[in-house]
Amino acid sequence: MKRKVFFSFHYKADHWRAAQIRNAGFVEGNVPVSDNDWEEITRGGEDAIKRWINEQMEGRSCVVVLIGSRTAGRKWINYEVKKGWVDGKGLLGIYIHNLKDQNGEQTSKGNNPFARFTLNERPLSQIVKSYDPPFSDSRDVYEYIKENIADWVEEAIEIRSKY
Questions:
Q1: Is the pLDDT of residue 27 over 70?
Q2: Which of 59, 81, 93, 108 gets the most CB atoms within 10 Å of its CB?
Q3: Nearest CA to 149 among 61, 42, 27?
Q4: pLDDT over 80 at 37, yes or no
């Protein structure tokens, strides 16, 4: 059974990398949004963005944060992490800096977005796992994620059930 997950990522910087992971097919992700659709959603203001995120998260069992060079600290990433945790969903991070983008470029490794949150004075990054594929070749990174993402999601759900 494929788990339904919500993919959280910095759209402008990482949508190409995120699409590669979504297309792996081992988990069912939220529906991708086009540039035009996102512009329409954002024109509705913060309430419209929150509504869209909330609707996309419905029925999902895990939030997978795809960590690029500028993911940590972004307002809507933070909202998605917090909402996912409060709603009892599994959380996990996957570093995607070594996946190539549409221009064939890799980027630098970003900071862990869970380090900004605490649970009982403990950084959430000590509870939520973030995986950094041990390869620099984009194809190897993709294969590693593809082979492991389903297990990581199950583990994230199990970890969340303990809190």
A1: yes
A2: 93
A3: 27
A4: no
Terminal alpha carbon distance of the chain: 24
The strand pair at 62-67 and 90-95 is best described as parallel
**Residue length of the chain:** 163
CATH pick for 5-33+59-160 out of 3.30.200, 1.10.150, 3.30.70, 3.40.50? 3.40.50
SS3 124: helix
Cα separation, 92 vs 63, whole angstroms: 7
For tokens 């970890």, name the residue: 159
The pLDDT value recorded for residue 35 is 58
Q: Is the pLDDT of residue 103 over 90?
A: yes
pLDDT confidence tier of residue 33, bands split at 50, 70 and 90: low
Bridging pattern class, strands 62-67 and 5-8: parallel
